[in-house]
């Protein structure tokens, strides 16, 4: 196996740069609940098509969202991909407006064939993030309540797929989740004779879960149709340890504080039960055109934190998109080799308050439109993929917050030689 050193260096630089930025990837008050903002799809080639990837079966890209797709890898070739993303969010309600910017790691992945009917893949990508700062004076304490949170959960996966018939593949990802989520609450009374209080809760997660995938593809004379299914293992439990500290204090002047009493509330070990996930998708390919439709659901009502429910709602996500390439890989016109992508996505919120407030405004909490491009290199075996997503979620009704956001992303995808002497029977 021989890999271009420049490509290895490029992948390494992008990976370490991404780690530097990966600690702060959201500033949304809606990330306060559950496990925060789940990363539905982070691969630029798929985000540009609305995020639908359940039925995408291609040798050009790694598709970890349906592990059955790994059988599409071509012999003697391996794939490597990594990238970054940036999120700009405008948050507003009737009383405030704020703009935040966050840059983060999107992914690093590898994929390669083992035999004609078997493919493998491994990678690292974000699973969820929290990041928020909230202040409230609407309470019964005549005090200011402040809520802050930060942290992220990452996912390492290793997956394999096998083609059981000419047009049917099955696959599985074994994923390991790890990370920490930190949440803080502070209560400051207007009466200086009353002690203020603050609490800090830190949750560390470590655990495995599994994702199953199936792909059926039917070829016709001028086109092909693909159907994909994915699901995770039912009631997957992730090990968690929660440390909580409660502290009372007084404030002297504007910035000086002194602690009156600090109590270690608890160190508790338990489980976090992940919600059940199921996705169904289809894709239609004809010459230089790909059309995809995805529908997925997640049973957040089954989510449990140390056996306690957070009264979240089940979510439904719909996405659709197209990719068009004017020419083939042999054309001399570079612009005809570019992949042009367009997509839309709708998703309702798992938050019960947001759902109740927005029911009469929007059928979905989050909606977005995306565009993307794939730029092949003339003399190098890799391609750059970029995307732009314009979206909105939330509502300003009933004192809630509306978010208008712009997501930008870029990835570099490399195709290299695998075992040069590898031959199929």
What does this structure look like?
This protein has one domain: Outer membrane protein transport protein (OMPP1/FadL/TodX) (Porin, Beta Barrel). It has 425 residues and is mainly β. It is elongated. The model is unreliable at 421-425 (pLDDT under 50). It has 3 helices and 19 strands. It has helices at residues 5-21, 44-47, 352-358, and strands at 37-38, 77-92, 97-115, 118-136, 143-165, 168-189, 196-219, 224-232, 237-252, 256-273, 276-286, 289-299, 304-305, 308-309, 315-324, 339-347, 366-376, 382-394, 402-417. A hairpin with a 2-residue loop joins β13 (304-305) and β14 (308-309).
Strand order, sheet with most strands = 2-3-4-5-6-7-8-11-12-15-16-17-18-19
In the CATH hierarchy, the third-tier topology is known as: Porin
End-to-end distance: 20 Å
Strand content: over 45%
Average per-residue pLDDT, rounded, comes to: 83
Q: Which SSEs are present, and which pair or pack?
A:
Elements: H1 5-21, E1 37-38, H2 44-47, E2 77-92, E3 97-115, E4 118-136, E5 143-165, E6 168-189, E7 196-219, E8 224-232, E9 237-252, E10 256-273, E11 276-286, E12 289-299, E13 304-305, E14 308-309, E15 315-324, E16 339-347, H3 352-358, E17 366-376, E18 382-394, E19 402-417
Antiparallel strand pairs: 1-4, 2-3, 2-19, 3-4, 4-5, 5-6, 6-7, 7-8, 7-9, 8-11, 9-10, 10-13, 11-12, 12-15, 13-14, 15-16, 16-17, 17-18, 18-19
